[in-house]
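ok trying this again, last paste got cut off
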Amino acid sequence: MNQKKIIFVSKSINDYNTIKTNNSKIFTFDYISHKKLQELGISHHIAENVLDYDERVSIFNIAKNFQNWHNEPLLKKIELKEVNLLGLLDGIELHSLIIEKLIVFFMIKKILEIEKPDSIECSNQIKNMILLIEKNNLINIKINSKEKKGELLWDSINIKHNFMGIPISIKISRTKYHKLKNILDKTVGSIFGLWFNFKNKSKKTILILEMYPPVYKDLFQSLNKKDINLIIINQRRPVTYDLESIKILRKSNCKLISKKDLFGKKDLKEIEESKQIFYEKIFNFWEDPNLNKIFKNNDLEFWAIIKNDLKEVFIKRINEYVESIFFAKKIFSKINISCILSLYDIGETEKVFLESKNENCKSFLLEHGFSLFFNDSKTFATLRSYDTFRDNIVVWSSQQKQFLISNYKIDSNKIFDIGSPRHDSLIKIKEKKKKKETIQVLIAPTPIVTLQGFDTSDIHEKFENVIIKLCKIFENLENVKMVFKLHPSQSGHNNEIKQIIQKYSKKIPIYLLNPISELIQESDVVITITPEGWSPSTIILESMILQKPVMNIVLDEKMYEFDYIKQGAIIAIPHSANLQNEIKQILFDQELKKELLINSRIFVKKFLKNPGLASKKLADLMKEY
């Protein structure tokens, strides 16, 4: 009887030439492996294709349900000053870690059910998953590779620069980043007088968390009042890194907090003792048998495939978490913090301060993305905890407010439809009409991320094909220049996008950190590339505000009927459309461009509340507290 053999191929394989087919059925688990086998002419199947859309949404929901695992009554809390340290891990990092594991787990499970193999070649990690799925395993398993330890989003930091139109990114460890940041803050803070003066500790104080001042310039200026302190705490992106940010801090009288000024010798001794105590507690925590019951869905247990990664990240970061809690508690005990403003509520900095704050301190969660709420966006809203956030939410439009009231049952008195402070400065910009011989087209690709579970070979292939098509189209158009603007995120896909562009031509300008408003102003047309149709880029709104014709190319071909599409404010097309014809129209059809700009003006006016005045409205609201 013939033995049925399958080979699972992942990017952990060092040399793809060593794969021997021998009548085996081969499955690739990622885009890198798929491309390598294609280049080698090795016939294979794409494992990701065994999961359909509904199955991936189901897996997403399983992962999402584990967000608050630390609050399960079965578990013993590890608390410091009434803050549960187990709940401080960045929610996006936690979700990414879990969903990546679950996607692979369910792909393997389905392939085993379909193929029923007698033997398998696979990586060490996949073997462990097979043994978890096949309790009474009779499959002969041979190891063909061993995975390198994966990194969470903030395990390392990308230091980004633009150099002669080329984005340069240098990755450094989290520990080294914090050391360099402390030196930078100390130096810049002292030179420019940015440190908070504790003589003012009794005045009402607004605490801003993880906001980049140049994006919210008008808001910082509106919050600047003699009778109110303004303090900013940024751990993920330093505010002392560029001159524009420093200028805004000085002009708005926004200050930094020095740990040196907060902690005395007694505090430092207590912190070090606490670090030792909680390191031991966290080190021994992971053998709790109840964790198997928590990380479970129906009869499937996932703890075995999550445990090591979760344990490792907490052991690495426990000292940092302990110090952060002491830091936050000290700030609230020494300074009269009346309210907190943040863009997220599930980042580490935000969690520490929101969990440490006094009861009389109000917090405001500010909407900061082009969220056009509907059922799919509700499903995938991992960047928000609308259903559990206990305080005030600030949104851009009345439509957003009504959606939150209807779908999340949030008290209407806690939702403020104030408008978008980040776009006030754009609305005030007067269009400069210049005669140009060359038409400039700005192309803004949104990178693929793992969050929703749709980071597949298929979507990567579509992305690459669209970029190459665009490069070829624009190469053959006279007096038309294309420039790319990459998303300034930690996404590894940005490097892949850059490589695709540079492989085609090293002459095409690629920007990373340049202000998007300036690039839009300099351009005649804007093209966005959206991997998942439910999540349009904010650049679409910004281009409409700045009166530039916009085309959105949607890779998953889910063409949602957003209001701005129904109103004819932009052109939205699937990746399979005739790109050449569509691009020629938006470039050269003057009537079409005129119509798009009229419709976009109408949409922006109706969508955004208090255009140009949102910063003042928000500042007035916060001052009431």
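PB: full thing came through this time. The longest helix spans residues 303-334.
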